[in-house]
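Appendix B, Record 12. Input sequence as logged:
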Amino acid sequence: MEQMTFLDFFAGIGGFRKGFELCGMRCVGHCEIDKYADRSYRAIHNVKEDEWYAADITKVTPADLPKADLWAGGFPCQDISVAGRQRGLDGARSGLFFTLAGLVQSQSPENRPTWIVLENVKNLLSIHGGWDFATVLDTLATLGYHIEYGLLNTKYFGPPQNKERVFLVACRHPGARCGPKIFPVSAGSGKALIQLIGGMQGQRVYDPAGVSTTMAAQSGGWGGRTGLYCVGYNRKTGIEKELEVAHTLTSSDFWGINRNQTQNAVFIDLSAGKQKTTQCARCIKAKYNSGITHRSGENSGVLIVPPDTAEQPTLSFVDICTGNAKLTKECRCILSAHNRTVSNWGGSSGVFYGCRAVVTPDREEKRQNGRRVKDCGEPSFTVTAQDRHGVLLQNCDACPYGMKIREATKKGYDIARCGDSINLSFPESKTRRGRVGKDLSATLETSCNQGTVFAGCGLIRRLTPRECWRLQGFTDEMFEKAHAVNSDNQLYRQAGNSVTVPVVYAVGKQIIAAQEALERGE
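Logged structural output:
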């Protein structure tokens, strides 16, 4: 299949562009009227000079549009959102949907896009009794498209943000009606834990295509703590499939079994420095349970990657605590305060909240001034040349610290703990509910009035622009490029208006798979 191309309408800062480019598509042009958002867009995506661009979609000449396989856009939601005046598609902004539909209609049949992807707020489904949504479906159907739609929540695709958005995917391929479906879009592999080989807990072998086993702090057997997974590694093609029975390990494994035959695993250095994968394991020593060291090339771990993932493996983080250990896709945020104040730029340092200082974790008898573990919110132990220092991540459910946040409920308040988000809009309101987000952010708006709580000391701080961009799936590198050309106020606004990159990526993967199936006649 040839590389798919797309046009990015109502482009914002390029959430659609980044998501689709990660799928392997190529952007041939974009349209964005906000000059500040376009600054960020151009800084992030390195837009070429010959790429098509228009500021105002109402002034676009149909003949000037380049041909593309897909048109994408999150048309304005101001008239549809529950926070707006509920004009619906009759409003000047949300009514730009009809302008986009008119551009599609003005194209000759051979130049019309095969796919159209639209995004808007959840209220599109119900505003004006659902008639506006029916109008959208009827308009696309009249243009000859078969339509699918789904309600997708960001929190199921990686970023911890509760953001529900309607995605419409329209296709005008002759086989689309009876062909492959786009929805439902799976947020992960969608497969449960699959056991390949039974036995005792530490000896069971699982299929890497399913979810992982529960991470255990202590358990017997080779795979008692993390589980064992059956994978295949080929020197040319990398990790390509799971194996029912692993190949026998022989001396020739140093160079790869017959060079191109699938072998058992990829090894990775367990060092705190620059890790690298190796074709053979490091020397096995008597004391091999020391874990991660500061010397590279000392200990090896096995790199386990599901067969259907990207080339570069995704790093996962695990809580190091004696309580309920969790495996997370993101590293825990280091929360700090200095003189009981918090900087929006993360420049303050001193007391850690949400974790407890530990002195020399590997020596239970070690004490400093009679104590080994400090309480949540206390400063770290004195750093000495002899002692080693660690942190015990606090189990927030058992943490005695909590902050009462006013809500219009029978109880009158909700408890916010370290790591929870708080909606900072109208703090004195007596009618607002759902102000506290448990372990995740609420939906980002253009004002980004979201805060996170320091329950140990009773402080609340606003999310920084960088954190808001992370919640939409943008990398820090992309944020830095936008930050160089825009103010914080504009960065907050742009994050609130953007689509979430991982959600677009998931939809794009479904579209590419469907396009390949349609070309094969399936």
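The mean pLDDT is 75.
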